[in-house]
């Protein structure tokens, strides 16, 4: 949820920043405030299946659910949690994150498991 704050900083005090990055699974490439050349360049750097998914959701929003649940065409790689969207450096780091998450799951379990009704008394 910090995207708005970063965008405001970039717009109003860019001279005070060394750089910024917005990490988002999906971006609205038709947003008027983004530079056209930048959005066009980044749009075509995506996987083709994600380009199609965004086109469907933008031009035919009533088909979005069907597009992401049908099996004839590849759906959004973000919705499928595909590793194809990761950079090579991210793929190298994923085992470390997976081991941390599995350790966390063992400690805390799934929500509601092992909780007694009188735990707060």
TrEMBL record:
InterPro entries: AB_hydrolase_fold. SUPFAM superfamilies: alpha/beta-Hydrolases (SSF53474). This is Uncharacterized protein.
